[in-house]
Amino acid sequence: MAMRIAVAISGRGSNLEALLRALQPDAPATIVVVISDRAEAAGLAHARTHGIPARVLPSPEDAGAWLEALRQHNVNLLVLAGYLKLVPAAVVAAYRGRIINTHPSLLPAFGGQGMYGERVHEAVLASGARETGVTIHLVDEAYDRGPVLAQSRVPVLNGDTARSLAARVLEAEHRLLPAAVLAAAAAGHPVPFELGPAPGSRLPASGC
Ligand code: GRF
What we know:
alpha/beta; 7 strands; single chain; 32% helix; binds 5-O-phosphono-beta-D-ribofuranosylamine
């Protein structure tokens, strides 16, 4: 039986879209509900287009509403894909080890409360780091903490702006997050995994 996924979003929903693209009808995982703290989240349109129930939580700090939605849809895995608030502690406790988050940096660097959107990439550029990336991790009671399951590295290039860097990181995120869900579906729960090289990318030359 396919793993039943809830995806939580707060905004644009491009990671939700990437998941929907990756999870074709014969996939071992299926998105059964999309949850948002914001009725105006643009990404809710993807749920409507695919006929997936969307649940807007008027009080996202209310654990009862989360648990009711997750249980009503028999959810096995909750994926935070651009969800910007803390998931209530009682939900984390009830679904411990079954909630994952994607974050657009190499955690623990550039994570934590207030580190979202372009702020992350601005901080990376200000630090002078030559590399950033994406982290998929298990969710615990704090922002962007919890065991790392996978990371994908992305170079910072000369002349990058927060916007150009964000676009490069997002591309990597759109590969890593679906891979995390497929790895979880194969194992029955979220697991550490390695992502193969991106299609079209060259392996480094050896021997010179
Ligand atoms: C993603 O980079 C996610 O990691 C971060 O916010 C962005 C959301 O993008 N927390 P989208 O809503 O999936 O397009």
